[in-house]
Hints:
With 388 residues, the protein is of the alpha/beta class. The protein contains 13 helices and 14 strands. Helix 1 packs parallel to helix 12, helix 4 packs across helix 9 and helix 11 runs parallel beside helix 13.
Amino acid sequence: xxxxxxxxxxxxxxxxxxxxxxxxxxxxxxxxxxxxxxxxxxxxxxxxxxxxxxxxxxxxxxxxxxxxxxxxxxxxxxxxxxxxxxxxxxxxxxxxxxxxxxxxxxxxxxxxxxxxxxxxxxxxxxxxxxxxxxxxxxxxxxxxxxxxxxxxxxxxxxxxxxxxxxxxxxxxxxxxxxxxxxxxxxxxxxxxxxxxxxxxxxxxxxxxxxxxxxxxxxxxxxxxxxxxxxxxxxxxxxxxxxxxxxxxxxxxxxxxxxxxxxxxxxxxxxxxxxxxxxxxxxxxxxxxxxxxxxxxxxxxxxxxxxxxxxxxxxxxxxxxxxxxxxxxxxxxxxxxxxxxxxxxxxxxxxxxxxxxxxxxxxxxxxxxxxxxxxxxxxxxxxxxxxxx
Length: 388
Ligand SMILES: Cc1ncc(COP(=O)(O)O)c(C=O)c1O
């Protein structure tokens, strides 16, 4: 009765089962997987945000496929101020989420069975997005050697006649690595050579841990490029469902892509009026929120390094941006077994590396947006167990 594309394995995994057991026993779980900023103890300007959703103009229905021009102008202003990029409003399409943005772009580029090259390790939602659009994902590895790097020989080997594009996550989740300037050049040459589009997921772009490295792909003009982002991370407001696709590249390709994207967006008209009228306020929130989150991320990293310095068994990998850190742990058991043991014995929840397709066991992923005291306590317990 159902389509093959929805034939997913829906059984719970061992970690979810263990979590339910530990929670039902009444134990307090230290959650080091937190990715929901609205439950991370941040201080939002609640009255202003809620007020912004009650604009009287939202009573008018103005079905603009790319999104209301006032809202698009605000997104363009964000690129101008935060990234020094001047965007033509015609090149912007608003979507309800970055995930929706991915679906639109996958639909635009791929026939059923066509392929997209995606980084590995990376974000697990890709698989589902691709299944739903009948797209085949072909992973290209990121290799760790004093920092993460794109593996261009593997990228070249992965390309086939059916490849339509390359996805980069800038910075990547969970490795926290940016696409470096030399990689950008190689990538752009690679895409030109194979006539591929580039899809750049920049949801974490504003969370660089140091200076440099945060150049947006929205200004890429030599290959057809779709840059995706949204307020879910930019302003830590995932519940507001406001995201966008910026199209850039050679003008003729951009024009053709925009015309088709407009029809895709027009088919759904998924943007709602209150959110679009609230865009100036929602985007403005980023100033206070990004400061709070970056302070927390950096404080947690500092504490992690302090605790790691007192032992020799675990190390963390170099991270340049984003909300996560990767811990390298001894290979005494699988990552999943270790995560389950941590939960049952120490009530600490972490993500095993295999959730993100790490090439082997020996990795745990920790959320750096966890409240500082919980993060420190959680890491302390992890090191206690791993150093036993
Ligand atoms: C790399 C990356 N891209 C996209 C998303 C989803 O963003 P949105 O909430 O806008 O769909 C996430 C969410 O965690 C993410 O980590």
